[in-house]
Amino acid sequence: MEPVEGHAVDGPIHPDSGRRSVGKRAGTALGGLGLLLLKLGAKLKALVLLLPKLKLLTTSGTMLVSVAAYSLIWGWQFAIGFVLLIFVHEMGHVFQLRREGVKASAPMFIPFMGAVIWAKSMGGNALAEARVGLAGPILGSVGAAALIPVASATGNNLFTALAFTGFFLNLFNLLPVVPLDGGRAMAALSPWMWFVGFAGLLALAFVFPNPIILIIVIFGGLETWRRWQSRKSPEAQVYYRVPAHARVIVAAVYLGLIALLVLGMDATHLERHI
């Protein structure tokens, strides 16, 4: 510990002078801590902006990390299939974002959280956002369904289990609450459904409590509240203006996809033998 320089005090010492000195030092310490936190926050922000450029965090690198993490639970074969299913789902978003004229990164994987893509927006309006949101489950469902003939040809239940898991993941993503894909679709249908989806998510978190659902609840609540607060702004009025025929198409795709995924899960469900 470094020595502290002392200062002589002229005149009488008052009983409360020590307390004032301690309070002053405490205030100085808190101010210094606040400044340190601000500097740390700025560095973390810079790190987040740098993440897509780090070699370790490229798509292939993060895929390998996720495979290794999931292998600890399900084994490496299922882990590889699981990560590939997530990749196919995320590429649906990437393809559609690029079709909407939005530059999007390749997926980067986060173990036990799925994957993320980097994009400046979800499109120019609510209809574009719905298309981007639904593109992931559509391509993801196709990827899961492609495993069914493979399972039939090989007789290997691993592919059946992966198909079931893929159908389930895409169905879960269709819950009508942002930031899930179903919430994106609701942007073009009825934003009121965000509250229905959020209530369903809360019920799910209560029945099946786990950290991932809790994180989705937190982000979903914040995003729903943010959008609801700004719903009457001129920009929001323009953003959520969707032609009636487009709403019908989005609703048909959304509901049809849910029905197909439920049928897919039923067809690939494996009975557990004790």
What this model shows, in words?
This protein is mainly α and 274 residues long. It folds into 2 domains: 18-53; 58-268, no CATH class. The chain is built from 11 helices and 2 strands. It has helices at residues 17-50, 59-74, 76-99, 126-145, 147-154, 157-172, 181-186, 193-207, 211-229, 234-239, 244-268, and strands at 108-110, 114-116. Strand 1 and strand 2 form a beta hairpin. Helix 3 (76-99) runs antiparallel to helix 4 (126-145) and helix 6 (157-172) packs antiparallel against helix 11. The radius of gyration is 26 Å and the shape is globular.
Number of strands: 2
Shape: globular
Low-confidence runs (pLDDT<50, min 5 residues)? Answer: 1-24
- Rg over CA atoms: 26 Å
Structural class, by secondary structure, is: mainly alpha
Strand content is under 5%
Following the backbone from N to C, one meets helices and strands in this order, namely HHHEEHHHHHHHH
Give the strand order of the largest sheet, numbering strands 1, 2, ... along the chain: 1-2
Question: Mind describing the biggest β-sheet?
Answer: 2 strands, antiparallel
Straight-line N-to-C gap: 64 Å
The mean pLDDT is 80
Work out the helix count: 11
The percentage helix is 55-70%
- Please give the domain count: 2
Can you lay out the helices and strands and say which pair or pack?
Elements: H1 17-50, H2 59-74, H3 76-99, E1 108-110, E2 114-116, H4 126-145, H5 147-154, H6 157-172, H7 181-186, H8 193-207, H9 211-229, H10 234-239, H11 244-268
Antiparallel strand pairs: 1-2
Helix pairs in contact: 2-3, 3-4, 3-6, 4-6, 4-11, 5-6, 6-11, 8-9
